[in-house]
# Entry
Amino acid sequence: MSTTDFEARLRAALHPVDPPEDMAARFERTLVNLTELAADELEAWELSAMRDPRNWVRPAAAAVVGAGAGAALVVLRVRGRHRRRRDQSAGVLDFAERTVRDLADEARRLLP
Amino acid sequence: MPDPQPLSKSELDRSFSELYRTHLRDVYSYAYYRVGNHHDAEDLTEQTFLQAYRHYERALRESDGRPLRPWLIRIAHNLAANYYRDRARRPESAIEDAAVISAPHTTERLVEDREELEEILAGVQQLPDDRREALIMRFALGMDNREIARALGRSDGATKVLLHRAIKQLEGIVGEQNSARPPAAAEVAER
# Structure
């Protein structure tokens, strides 16, 4: 096989791969909804958690999470686990605690 | 010359959406051939664009009108490197079946073509990282030497040499695979 033939085969092997059809729409929704989603998620634990002074340092972490566009994915994922966290929680404070921990874990994992 | 007027938030978002639509397939293809499966490729693509969005304004300012595709691919390249480092793994298996051959063929021809392309893909996975990436950028994304050089942070000359060596090494790998393989039934029958 000549080098030209080989390159043609290589081009056929490494053909462009189409992303899932709904990916573009999903991503754009993620960006558009960023602020709203971040606010909702923060609100869910803020009201209860802020009553306890031990939790006052945590809004800082959450604010960082809510600050950039990269936070959209974090918020979406944390939000996706909302029900599981609620079911596992012993009470409102425990739920808030779990949400904060989840946010921080996702942020550490996803954000540079 | 004075700096151009900065874009408003909505103009920036519109511009980014355009960039996203134009290059989604490129970034996804690159991610797919780096990580070897659709699930992680989707994740990597999403992270690439989220990170690109965060730095988009600065990238636009500094691009000086040059295409942003190499910048996007460089982000994906860095994230893919983190992906392997964090999970301490490389593409562990052959790339998932991504409809390797899309054109209609006879069954026999299809099987032969498919095997050949799979061998090439397996060979690509055996290449050193920089060579593999250069081939993905050239053949899957259709990037020219200059774009690849920008994405990899190399000179144009070094990139040309890198591509040449990558193709030669891959030819060698595929040749070895073919010579080690037992002859197909059709070849035996011809003898």
The CA atoms of residues 182 and 188 of chain B lie 10 Å apart.
